[in-house]
Amino acid sequence: MTIESVVQAWGAAWDARDGAAAAALLAADGTFEDPVSGGAVGRASVPDSVEALARAFPDARFARVPVVAGARGVIEWVMEGTHLGTWQGGPATGRTVRLEGVDVLEGDAAGLRRVRRYFDPTALAEQLGWVTLVQPESVGRARYGYSMRVASGNPRPPGVIALTWIEAADQGEKDRIRAHSRQNVDDFLQEPGFIAIVTGFTGLRGFTVTAWEDEGAMRRALGKHHAVAMEELFGERFVAAVWTSVWQATRMNRIWVRCRECGSLQDVNDDHRTCTACAAGLPERPAFW
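Predicted structure:
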């Protein structure tokens, strides 16, 4: 096949959501790389990339302008589609996107030796309504990362707080820990005594701060998928280090809310809804955690 025909076939394979056809265009030692592939990957991984795009944007449409010079082909493209499936771990949003990019293909008679796809993942994330974060990995003793809070809506004060950290050996283990964590949080939300969790990662170190009504509620929730994760921890070479703990409060202070009308601080532990200073309405008391 000529490079011109390979370039055409490459675009056609992606249009058809045919990962096997796209992979077949690469030489045995050919590689593919894009901003979300985690670096250059071999021919066997190309179908996964095609499938991931097709799952996330099943109605994706490409407009392409190919240019061929010698053994290199360059395809400028614009993709439009609707986010109807999982993309990079995030659930479908139903939003439409328009993404511009470029594919650079290099090959010879044996097939494509190298394919590099360029697009702006931040632009895509912002169109999906996702938060994008640009920050250093560390500054001095400070380590930066990301976190999330999942609240149950339970208004009761916590009887116990669980503090944990877990350190992955590498990115693969981190992804595995995160998969377990998602299932654990789903289980927590089914437990009436669960209040809220704040969890996240700095580098390869994950952490959780979880509030429960009492230890019984915590034990019931941890008896579900968390028990499977514990079996893997102790039964396999999984996780570099881990620490867990359960704490009870020495002292719990008041929840203070400022009245939006007169500006006075109100002690709302009893969840009263009228300002004692000006009689204006107060919002619902925030959760304790």
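Summary: The mean pLDDT is 96.
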